[in-house]
Amino acid sequence: MKIDVTRAAKVLVPAAFVMSATLAVAAPAEAASSCKGAGYLCFYDYASAQYGSVAGNNANWGAFGWNDRADWFRNDGRSCTVRVYQHINGQGAGYAIPRGSTLSWSNIVSSNYWC
Ligand SMILES: [Ca+2]
Question: What is the pLDDT of residues 38-94, one digit of tens each?
């Protein structure tokens, strides 16, 4: 009996991991009620009272419904600074957000790049 329980647990862990990885690729910044946590740039829109989170570089936030929309940002990344920009493709004005820091910049950001 003990052996069966252990085997079941080993199967469940990889399945949960695959599901999480698939969601991250398909929806880089779905509206949510909280930050996604470690590894993400988290942001918040006061108008809709929704959080979003992105991992990796994103050249056009309009692709997932967040162009010129986020008002508050927090770098929950695991390793480095993230830069947010006024326009797509890292153009226009920008701010660097060191790991663990926050930024308030309303309805402007359209792209982000790490490190
Ligand atoms: Ca907003």
Answer: 999 999 999 999 999 999 999 999 999 999 999 999 999 999 999 999 999 999 999
How remote is the CA of residue 86 from the centroid of ligand 1, in Å? Answer: 14
CB 37 within 8 A of CB 20: no
Check: pTM over 0.90? Answer yes or no.
no
CA of 107 to the centre of ligand 1 (A): 5
What domains lie within the chain, and their CATH numbers? 29-114 (2.60.20.10)
Whole-number Å distance, alpha carbon 10 to ligand 1 midpoint, is 43
CA dist., res. 67 & res. 107, Å (int)? 8
Q: Is the dihedral of CA 24, 26, 28, 30 positive or negative?
A: negative
Distance of CA 109 from the midpoint of ligand 1 (Å): 10
Tokens 């942001």 correspond to 43
- Distance from Cα 68 to the centre of ligand 1, integer Å: 7
